[in-house]
Amino acid sequence: MKLIQIPVACFILSMFFVTDAHAMHISEGILPLNWAAFWLAVALPFVAYGLWKMKKMSSIDVSFKPLVGLMTAVVFIISCMPIPVPTAGTCSHPCATGISGILLGPAMSVLITSVALLIQALFLAHGGLSTWGADIVSMGVIGSFTGFLTFKAFRSFGAGIAAAGFMAGLFSDWATYLTTSVELASGISGDAPFFPLFSKIVIAFIPTQLPLGILEGAMTAGMLRLLYNKRPDLLVKMRVLRPEEAI
Amino acid sequence: MKFQIPYFIFHIRRILLCCSIALLLCLSFQLSAFGSEWKGVDESVVKKFAKEHGREAKDPLINTDQGDLLLFVFLLAGAVGGFAAGYYWHVLITEKVHRDIKKDYSLSAPKDK
After folding, report:
1. Which of A68, A96, B62, B90 could lock onto A78 through a cystine, CB 3.0 to 4.6 A?
2. Which value does ipTM take for this structure?
3. How far is A157 from chain B (nearest CA, A)?
């Protein structure tokens, strides 16, 4: 990439941000304190494991750091980039945790997602500090692990890197919103039955997230294909490809 | 007279990609003018269901949602994030290629002498 393309990319990306924050992160105060604490308790061990993994990987391979930096920026930007969905008349955003889960591994992906979510909650009025744990679980833990496992599963069935990447992006996005629905329904249902409310929330998410999931799948496949063309050795190093598959 | 292929033909894929991105941006902004309020799913789904069940969103700890301040913060975050992504992409792709070329040169140089 030529240096001149960096400011051009910045400009294009920044155009997406000239709008209010429309997000799927659960906002401050939506979840009761006990549920917020529960989701934080679920999320923290994953974040701690991610920290340990990061320390271990950095000591083994210094070239790992630019990839972590790139993926952190990508997750941060994409997870607060509102995309209008004409079929629904609403806006939402992809998560990019599928691609980060594939490239860095799910543990590292949880860590970088938690950092991105913390910055968004603190400075962008996007998500919340009390709901940080719930947002980490839905976007970081479920999104990353679903993306990673889907990619591995499809690869083991003989799918190509782009096809497996597409399915990983698609399922990681949908799984994230499914988990958000679980968190929301369990937190706000009170004495009311869980499943009717849960299904109502899922149905309400479908018109927006169905096309966005496909977009996220295409984006994941495109990024993997691009890296495959430019740096197949990196994909081998990150165990995304087998050495014999790299040209 | 010798026929020459115009230079831009060699960059046709890049030109098409740039045009598609520009068209997509224009279309998304244009569509937003015709559509409804284009609320985020946080409002149209999360906050709506929460309100129905007696839960309201609170102001964030650092409330940047005040007039154009939020636009500024988002623009800043987009620029910094975009720069970081571009910088690390450059480190991963371009510098790696340069390093490899230099390494090959330094290995082959003594043999030439």
Report:
1. A96
2. 0.80
3. 30
- Do residues A16 and B74 touch, judged by C-beta distance below 8 A? no
What does the alpha-carbon distance between residue B1 and residue A29 come to, in Å, rounded to a whole number? 75
B87 and chain A: CB distance < 8 Å anywhere? yes
- d(C-alpha A126, C-alpha A114), whole Å: 13
The total domain count for chain A is 1
Residue A213 lies in a domain: yes
Q: Which residue has the higher pLDDT, A6 or A79?
A: A79
What angle in degrees, to the nearest 10, is found between the helix axes of A161-188 and A194-230? 150
Q: What CATH number does the domain containing A134 carry? A: 1.10.1760.20
Lowest mean pLDDT among A97-106, A145-154, A164-173, B11-20: B11-20
Question: What's the half-sphere exposure (Cβ side, CA atoms, 13 Å) at A39?
Answer: 29
* Yes or no, beta carbons of B41 and A205 under 8 Å apart: yes
Higher per-residue pLDDT: A91 or A20: A91
Under an 8 A CB cutoff, do A189 and B53 touch? yes
pLDDT at B48 exceeding the cut of 80: yes
Average pLDDT over residues B83-96: 86
